[in-house]
Amino acid sequence: MFPLHQSLNPNSFFKKPILNFNQLIVPTSSISFSRGNPYLTSMVLGKTQLPTNSHGGPAPVAAAVTAEERRGFVDEMRAVAMKLHTKEQAKEGEKEVEGPEEMSPAKWEPSVEGYLKFLVDSKVVFDTMERIVDEAPVAYYAEFRNTGLERSESLATDLEWFKVQGHLIPEPSATGLKYATFLEELAKKDPQAFICHFYNVYFAHSAGGRMIGKKVAEKILNKKELEFYKWDG
Protein backbone atom coordinates (compact mmCIF):
# COMPACT_ATOMS: atom_id res chain seq x y z
CA MET A 1 0.00 0.00 0.00
CA PHE A 2 1.08 3.62 -0.11
CA PRO A 3 3.30 4.64 2.81
CA LEU A 4 0.72 6.39 4.97
CA HIS A 5 2.60 6.48 8.26
CA GLN A 6 0.33 6.99 11.25
CA SER A 7 0.64 7.29 14.98
CA LEU A 8 0.52 3.92 16.69
CA ASN A 9 -2.26 5.27 18.90
CA PRO A 10 -5.39 3.51 17.60
CA ASN A 11 -7.49 6.55 18.45
CA SER A 12 -5.58 8.64 15.91
CA PHE A 13 -5.21 6.00 13.18
CA PHE A 14 -5.83 7.39 9.65
CA LYS A 15 -6.73 10.87 10.93
CA LYS A 16 -3.59 12.71 9.87
CA PRO A 17 -1.72 10.76 7.19
CA ILE A 18 1.87 11.68 6.49
CA LEU A 19 3.12 10.58 3.10
CA ASN A 20 6.68 9.31 2.95
CA PHE A 21 7.73 8.58 -0.62
CA ASN A 22 11.20 7.45 0.39
CA GLN A 23 9.70 4.20 1.65
CA LEU A 24 7.23 2.67 -0.76
CA ILE A 25 7.61 -0.83 0.69
CA VAL A 26 7.35 -1.74 4.35
CA PRO A 27 10.55 -3.59 5.33
CA THR A 28 9.56 -7.18 5.93
CA SER A 29 12.49 -7.71 8.28
CA SER A 30 10.97 -5.42 10.90
CA ILE A 31 7.27 -5.78 10.27
CA SER A 32 5.61 -9.02 9.29
CA PHE A 33 1.94 -9.82 9.15
CA SER A 34 2.70 -13.25 10.52
CA ARG A 35 0.41 -14.84 13.06
CA GLY A 36 3.48 -15.79 15.02
CA ASN A 37 4.81 -12.26 15.39
CA PRO A 38 3.77 -10.91 18.84
CA TYR A 39 5.72 -7.68 18.22
CA LEU A 40 3.39 -6.69 15.40
CA THR A 41 0.32 -7.55 17.47
CA SER A 42 1.40 -5.33 20.35
CA MET A 43 2.45 -2.53 17.98
CA VAL A 44 -0.92 -2.41 16.27
CA LEU A 45 -2.56 -2.10 19.66
CA GLY A 46 -0.27 0.78 20.55
CA LYS A 47 1.28 -1.19 23.41
CA THR A 48 4.71 -2.13 22.10
CA GLN A 49 6.88 -3.74 24.76
CA LEU A 50 10.50 -4.78 24.30
CA PRO A 51 11.49 -8.13 25.82
CA THR A 52 13.57 -7.86 29.01
CA ASN A 53 16.00 -10.15 30.80
CA SER A 54 15.90 -11.21 34.45
CA HIS A 55 17.64 -7.96 35.48
CA GLY A 56 15.11 -5.74 33.79
CA GLY A 57 17.40 -4.82 30.91
CA PRO A 58 16.72 -5.39 27.22
CA ALA A 59 16.97 -9.00 26.16
CA PRO A 60 19.11 -9.87 23.12
CA VAL A 61 17.17 -10.11 19.88
CA ALA A 62 17.76 -13.23 17.80
CA ALA A 63 19.33 -12.43 14.44
CA ALA A 64 17.74 -15.36 12.66
CA VAL A 65 14.14 -15.19 11.50
CA THR A 66 11.90 -17.93 10.27
CA ALA A 67 10.90 -18.26 6.65
CA GLU A 68 7.37 -17.19 7.60
CA GLU A 69 8.68 -13.99 9.23
CA ARG A 70 10.81 -13.18 6.20
CA ARG A 71 7.79 -13.42 3.94
CA GLY A 72 6.28 -10.01 3.17
CA PHE A 73 2.66 -9.14 3.86
CA VAL A 74 1.97 -8.92 0.10
CA ASP A 75 2.84 -12.61 -0.25
CA GLU A 76 0.61 -13.46 2.68
CA MET A 77 -2.30 -11.48 1.25
CA ARG A 78 -1.85 -13.13 -2.13
CA ALA A 79 -1.88 -16.61 -0.60
CA VAL A 80 -5.12 -15.90 1.23
CA ALA A 81 -6.72 -14.25 -1.81
CA MET A 82 -5.85 -17.16 -4.10
CA LYS A 83 -7.51 -19.62 -1.75
CA LEU A 84 -10.76 -17.70 -2.18
CA HIS A 85 -10.77 -18.60 -5.89
CA THR A 86 -12.03 -21.85 -7.34
CA LYS A 87 -9.68 -24.37 -8.93
CA GLU A 88 -10.91 -23.23 -12.34
CA GLN A 89 -9.95 -19.63 -11.54
CA ALA A 90 -6.54 -20.26 -9.94
CA LYS A 91 -4.42 -23.33 -9.29
CA GLU A 92 -4.15 -22.40 -5.60
CA GLY A 93 -7.94 -22.07 -5.32
CA GLU A 94 -9.79 -23.97 -2.62
CA LYS A 95 -13.33 -22.61 -3.00
CA GLU A 96 -16.01 -24.96 -4.32
CA VAL A 97 -17.89 -23.93 -7.47
CA GLU A 98 -21.36 -22.91 -6.29
CA GLY A 99 -22.86 -21.46 -9.46
CA PRO A 100 -22.35 -20.95 -13.20
CA GLU A 101 -20.94 -17.47 -12.59
CA GLU A 102 -17.93 -19.06 -10.87
CA MET A 103 -17.08 -21.34 -13.77
CA SER A 104 -14.28 -20.44 -16.15
CA PRO A 105 -15.50 -18.01 -18.83
CA ALA A 106 -15.28 -18.81 -22.51
CA LYS A 107 -11.96 -18.01 -24.14
CA TRP A 108 -11.76 -14.25 -24.69
CA GLU A 109 -10.77 -12.96 -28.09
CA PRO A 110 -9.95 -9.23 -28.17
CA SER A 111 -10.97 -6.87 -30.96
CA VAL A 112 -9.54 -3.51 -31.97
CA GLU A 113 -12.94 -1.87 -31.41
CA GLY A 114 -13.26 -3.26 -27.91
CA TYR A 115 -9.66 -2.42 -27.08
CA LEU A 116 -10.15 1.17 -28.21
CA LYS A 117 -13.13 1.50 -25.87
CA PHE A 118 -10.93 0.30 -23.03
CA LEU A 119 -8.14 2.76 -23.89
CA VAL A 120 -10.56 5.69 -24.18
CA ASP A 121 -12.16 4.92 -20.81
CA SER A 122 -8.72 4.44 -19.28
CA LYS A 123 -7.70 7.88 -20.48
CA VAL A 124 -10.77 9.42 -18.84
CA VAL A 125 -9.83 7.79 -15.53
CA PHE A 126 -6.12 8.69 -15.67
CA ASP A 127 -6.92 12.24 -16.82
CA THR A 128 -9.17 12.62 -13.80
CA MET A 129 -6.68 11.26 -11.27
CA GLU A 130 -3.84 13.36 -12.66
CA ARG A 131 -6.00 16.48 -12.56
CA ILE A 132 -6.99 15.76 -8.96
CA VAL A 133 -3.41 15.44 -7.73
CA ASP A 134 -2.45 18.52 -9.74
CA GLU A 135 -5.23 20.64 -8.20
CA ALA A 136 -4.71 18.97 -4.80
CA PRO A 137 -8.02 19.66 -3.03
CA VAL A 138 -6.30 17.88 -0.14
CA ALA A 139 -2.79 19.23 0.42
CA TYR A 140 -0.90 15.93 0.50
CA TYR A 141 -2.28 14.89 -2.91
CA ALA A 142 0.43 17.17 -4.32
CA GLU A 143 2.99 14.56 -3.27
CA PHE A 144 1.71 12.36 -6.09
CA ARG A 145 2.62 14.83 -8.84
CA ASN A 146 5.25 13.92 -11.42
CA THR A 147 5.90 10.43 -10.10
CA GLY A 148 6.59 8.97 -13.53
CA LEU A 149 3.45 6.83 -13.28
CA GLU A 150 1.30 9.26 -15.28
CA ARG A 151 -0.46 7.62 -18.24
CA SER A 152 -2.58 10.35 -19.85
CA GLU A 153 0.08 11.57 -22.28
CA SER A 154 0.98 8.01 -23.29
CA LEU A 155 -2.67 7.18 -23.91
CA ALA A 156 -3.11 10.29 -26.05
CA THR A 157 -0.14 9.16 -28.16
CA ASP A 158 -1.56 5.66 -28.57
CA LEU A 159 -5.03 6.87 -29.53
CA GLU A 160 -3.51 9.17 -32.12
CA TRP A 161 -1.61 6.19 -33.56
CA PHE A 162 -4.85 4.21 -33.89
CA LYS A 163 -6.47 7.20 -35.58
CA VAL A 164 -3.64 7.40 -38.13
CA GLN A 165 -4.16 3.70 -38.83
CA GLY A 166 -7.71 4.53 -39.89
CA HIS A 167 -9.60 3.49 -36.76
CA LEU A 168 -12.50 5.52 -35.40
CA ILE A 169 -11.87 6.64 -31.83
CA PRO A 170 -15.06 6.16 -29.77
CA GLU A 171 -16.47 8.51 -27.16
CA PRO A 172 -15.97 7.61 -23.48
CA SER A 173 -18.59 5.21 -22.16
CA ALA A 174 -21.15 6.12 -19.52
CA THR A 175 -19.39 3.75 -17.13
CA GLY A 176 -16.01 5.43 -17.60
CA LEU A 177 -17.48 8.90 -17.13
CA LYS A 178 -19.43 7.79 -14.06
CA TYR A 179 -16.31 6.40 -12.42
CA ALA A 180 -14.37 9.58 -13.18
CA THR A 181 -17.11 11.66 -11.53
CA PHE A 182 -17.09 9.30 -8.56
CA LEU A 183 -13.32 9.81 -8.15
CA GLU A 184 -13.70 13.59 -8.22
CA GLU A 185 -16.32 13.49 -5.48
CA LEU A 186 -14.39 10.94 -3.43
CA ALA A 187 -11.20 13.01 -3.58
CA LYS A 188 -12.98 15.86 -1.79
CA LYS A 189 -15.03 14.02 0.80
CA ASP A 190 -12.97 10.91 1.60
CA PRO A 191 -9.21 11.30 0.96
CA GLN A 192 -8.30 7.88 2.34
CA ALA A 193 -10.75 6.14 0.02
CA PHE A 194 -9.45 8.15 -2.94
CA ILE A 195 -5.88 7.08 -2.17
CA CYS A 196 -7.05 3.45 -2.19
CA HIS A 197 -8.59 3.87 -5.65
CA PHE A 198 -5.50 5.76 -6.84
CA TYR A 199 -3.22 2.97 -5.68
CA ASN A 200 -5.39 0.17 -7.07
CA VAL A 201 -5.68 1.73 -10.53
CA TYR A 202 -1.96 2.36 -10.94
CA PHE A 203 -0.93 -0.93 -9.36
CA ALA A 204 -3.36 -2.96 -11.46
CA HIS A 205 -2.12 -1.34 -14.66
CA SER A 206 1.59 -1.69 -13.85
CA ALA A 207 1.16 -5.35 -12.86
CA GLY A 208 -1.59 -7.42 -14.48
CA GLY A 209 -2.40 -4.68 -16.97
CA ARG A 210 0.99 -5.00 -18.63
CA MET A 211 0.53 -8.73 -19.08
CA ILE A 212 -2.90 -8.21 -20.63
CA GLY A 213 -1.51 -5.50 -22.90
CA LYS A 214 1.20 -7.85 -24.13
CA LYS A 215 -1.33 -10.58 -24.92
CA VAL A 216 -3.59 -8.15 -26.78
CA ALA A 217 -0.64 -6.82 -28.77
CA GLU A 218 0.26 -10.35 -29.84
CA LYS A 219 -3.29 -11.08 -30.98
CA ILE A 220 -4.42 -7.90 -32.74
CA LEU A 221 -1.54 -5.39 -32.98
CA ASN A 222 1.21 -7.46 -34.59
CA LYS A 223 3.09 -7.32 -31.27
CA LYS A 224 3.26 -3.51 -31.24
CA GLU A 225 3.95 -2.26 -27.72
CA LEU A 226 1.81 0.75 -26.89
CA GLU A 227 3.16 3.75 -24.99
CA PHE A 228 0.53 3.00 -22.35
CA TYR A 229 2.70 0.09 -21.21
CA LYS A 230 6.07 1.85 -21.21
CA TRP A 231 7.76 3.62 -18.32
CA ASP A 232 11.06 5.43 -18.07
CA GLY A 233 13.71 3.56 -16.17
TrEMBL record:
EC number annotated for this UniProt entry: 1.14.14.18
Gene3D superfamilies per UniProt: Heme oxygenase-like
GO CC annotations on file: chloroplast
Source taxon at top rank: Eukaryota
CDD domains: HemeO
Protein localization: Plastid, Chloroplast
GO MF term list: heme oxygenase (decyclizing) activity; metal ion binding
Gene Ontology annotations of biological process type: heme oxidation; photosynthesis; phytochromobilin biosynthetic process
InterPro entries attached to this UniProt entry: Haem_Oase, Haem_Oase-like, Haem_Oase-like_multi-hlx, Haem_Oase_decyc_pln
First-tier enzyme category under EC: oxidoreductase
Compositionally biased intervals (Basic and acidic residues): 87-98
Region (Disordered): 87-106
Alphabetic keyword roster: Chloroplast, Heme, Iron, Metal-binding, Oxidoreductase, Photosynthesis, Plastid, Transit peptide
Pfam families according to UniProt: Heme_oxygenase
Family under the similarity heading: Belongs to the heme oxygenase family.
This protein's name: heme oxygenase (biliverdin-producing)
